[in-house]
Design a protein that fits this description.
Blueprint lengths: L9 H6 L26 H4 L6 H17 L9 H10 L14 H10 L11 H17 L13 H23 L15 E4 L3 E2 L7 H15 L6 E2 L2 H4 L9 H8 L3 E10 L2 E10 L4 E11 L3 H16 L18 H14 L4 H17 L4 H17 L5 H17 L4 H13 L3 H14 L4 H13 L3 H14 L4 H13 L3 H12 L6 H13 L3 H15 L3 H13 L3 H16 L8 H7 L3 H13 L23 H10 L5
Parallel strand pairs: 1-3, 1-4, 2-4
Antiparallel strand pairs: 4-5, 5-6
Helix pairs in contact: 3-5, 6-7, 8-11, 8-12, 12-13, 12-14, 13-14, 14-15, 14-16, 15-16, 16-17, 16-18, 17-18, 18-19, 18-20, 19-20, 20-21, 21-22, 22-23, 22-24, 23-24, 24-25, 24-26, 26-27, 27-28
């Protein structure tokens, strides 16, 4: 029941080195490692002058390891370990031990400050904080941690650590002295990333809840006019990863990070959240909550409000006007979260499930504006991810969006979706007005910029399209679909070398995104890299579930490689799908053209324009890399002009 910390006193021996025999003399100098590297302070690792604060740092490492079950700084080599000790920040303890009190984590963070002046300046100062922690824990002022199903051993162990350290510090306080030092006033925080909350139970059935809470906090914080909030699609790129917070902050160029953990047990919801200043690695705010599952909406609002209060400049609200887009119906909100979870998966199965959940949310609360937006957004993605013609789906999307706007005219997402509806119908004036309204309501909503870029490309306004997609990319740098559209506009502007470089860079982010693989295959074919094109396109077909778009890319790759038989076989299958109404005639055009049949390609495009399918794909025919050889054909030029006229 006792914790013993044994120290061989190497730092002390270094001061008395001249009195030692040659065989036992210890020197501290750069390049000479004395002691166990994992437990060194930055100044010891760098061979600098040491004092008692170096020992306090090493004590912090021991405490971190005891509580988290892992070292805060660990590399494959001594050099890598020292580099992390001197430059990297440790991950939050709460990632590895849900039961650790936030105050204990704050204490350990302070022990592990790189700058000795920002650490505890004496063991006595540390002793006071630990003693207060013990007192508050005993009095119940600190919320009791949730007990894991495995039992109470971990919590009891943490308690033993605290008690053992108290005993150690009572002795150390007598031996060590130092003056206190206050921390510098934090600079204004103007940027933040809300990382995906960790689903502690690792239950796929409750994954929607941890994702949904994170996304809701992101949306709420976006209401602070002075704060740049990283979008969901970018931060969710870190989901399931153990990337160091300092690295994430550097990648996203943010000053603060919110992280958290969610545990659902029956109808109870336990959430832990913290706000970290990435410049100082100090915890600005942290809290643990226990609520009923039906109170999830109120809880995420409470968390957002508390974080907002910490970030707003003094004396200001900094928020945009409140909107009425949410719901007080707990069941409707749960269904909405499930819908967004499956919608964000961007698969045919996910699209079907999302629609069902959004429709159930609307049935539970017909005045839930965001649920109506969810219904519309799902219909709008059916063509792209579920391979369904867009006509009927566009009509249904409009019904849902009109209802959402009637309930709340200030939802940027709703106006962006309305822009896509008008775009599918090739009503360019109304489409542009809707996109501009969405951007006016929320200039930092990347999807509005992204979809507006598509409309501008369809209209032949390539320079303007490029400007808006670059803004979207800056707002959401890890969004794969935005990356694909950056490649698309570069291709449309005949900047193939840049397009290929951009596509390969995005491959490093996600090598399994079908839409990226498709355009990359086309770029490989353009450069005569036919085997790479075929292999890449086959992978896209497999990952997409065989959508018409990716199947057409594969046929084109075969045809350009001189492999007519497989290309013709794919074309026959695509024609059958079109005959059954399961695919847009548009996808027959690039395959026919690659096989040398220009007339058949033009006929397919004409059918796509005339079919009334309201295809989202046909509007981009002038920018399609696989139709590039048609650009000078008068018949193609006439079709493009016809496409740019409203269909209704």
């Amino acid at each position: 029941g006792h914790v013993k910390v044994l120290d061989f006193g190497l730092a002390k021996l270094a001061a008395d080195a001249d009195t030692q025999d040659e065989d036992t003399r210890i020197k501290t100098s750069p390049g000479l490692i004395i002691g166990t590297p994992y437990y060194m302070s930055p100044e010891q690792a760098l061979g600098r002058t040491l004092d008692h604060r170096s020992d306090l740092f090493s004590l912090g490492i021991v405490l971190y390891e005891l509580i988290a079950g892992r070292l805060p700084f660990e590399g494959a080599t001594t050099t890598e370990t020292i580099q992390k000790i001197t430059n990297s920040q440790p991950d939050p303890i709460a990632r590895f031990n849900y039961s650790a009190p936030p105050e204990l984590e704050r204490i350990v963070r302070k022990l592990l400050e790189k700058d000795p002046a920002r650490r505890y300046q004496s063991a006595r100062e540390l002793f006071v904080d630990l003693k207060n922690l013990k007192r508050d824990s005993s009095s119940g002022e600190i919320a009791k941690p949730v007990q894991p199903k495995a039992g109470t051993r971990k919590t009891a162990f943490v308690g033993a650590v605290i008690i053992g350290v108290l005993a150690l510090i009572i002795i150390a306080a007598v031996l060590l002295r130092g003056s206190g030092a206050g921390s510098a006033e934090a600079d204004t925080i103007d940027s933040i990333a809300v990382l995906p909350f960790v689903n502690v139970a690792n239950d796929p059935e409750t994954e929607y809840l941890s994702d949904g809470i994170s996304e809701s906090i992101i949306n709420n914080l976006a209401g602070i006019a002075t704060l740049r909030v990283i979008p969901r699609s970018t931060v969710f790129g870190y989901k399931g990863k153990t990337t160091a917070l300092a690295e994430i902050a550097s990648d996203l160029d943010v000053r603060a990070i919110v992280s958290g953990r969610v545990l659902q047990r029956g109808d109870l919801l336990n959430v832990q959240a913290e706000l970290i200043d990435t410049k100082t690695n100090a915890q600005i705010w942290g809290a643990r909550y226990e609520r009923k599952l039906t109170e999830a909406l109120a809880l995420q609002n409470e968390i957002s409000d508390q974080i907002s209060a910490r970030l707003r400049p003094a004396g200001t609200t900094g928020e945009r006007p409140a909107v009425s887009s949410m719901t007080d119906n707990a069941e409707a909100y749960q269904l909405y979260l499930k819908g967004r979870y499956h919608w964000n998966r961007r698969t045919a199965e996910g699209i079907d499930k999302a629609l069902g959940f959004f429709q159930q949310a609307v049935a539970n609360d017909p005045d839930f504006a965001l649920a109506h937006v969810g219904v519309a957004d799902t219909y709008l993605l059916m063509e792209w991810y579920a391979d369904r013609p867009g006509g009927e789906a566009t009509d249904k999307a409009e019904v849902a969006i009109r209802r959402a706007i009637a309930l709340d005219d200030e939802i940027a997402e709703a106006h962006a979706s309305l822009g896509m509806i008008h775009q599918n119908r090739r009503d360019w004036g109304k489409s542009e007005a809707a996109y501009r309204r969405a951007i006016e309501l929320n200039p930092d909503y990347p999807t509005a910029r992204h979809w507006y870029n598509i409309m501008l490309m369809a209209s032949g306004r390539f320079d303007e399209a490029y400007e808006h997609i670059l803004v979207a990319q800056r707002l959401d740098p890890l969004s794969m679909i935005i990356g694909v559209n950056v490649v698309d506009i570069l291709v449309a502007m005949d900047r193939d070398a840049e397009a290929l470089e951009t596509a390969e860079r995005y491959m490093e982010i996600d090598p399994n995104f079908p839409q990226l693989l498709g355009i990359l295959s086309a770029l490989y074919s353009q450069r005569g890299r036919h085997q790479e094109a075929i292999a890449t396109s086959r992978r896209a077909v497999e990952l997409s579930g065989g959508t018409a778009e990716q199947t057409a890319y594969l046929a084109v790759a075969h045809a350009k490689a001189g492999q007519r038989a497989p290309a013709e076989e794919i074309l026959r299958k695509l024609e059958s799908r079109v005959m059954r109404g399961e695919s847009d005639p548009y996808y027959l055009a690039p395959v026919s053209l690659a096989l040398g049949d220009r007339d058949k390609a033009l006929d397919a495009l004409s059918r796509a324009i005339a079919s009334g399918s309201e295809s989202g794909r046909v509007v981009l025919m002038a920018a399609d890399i696989n139709l590039r050889s048609l650009r000078s054909d008068p018949r193609f030029i006439a079709l493009v002009e016809r496409m740019r006229r409203p269909s209704k």
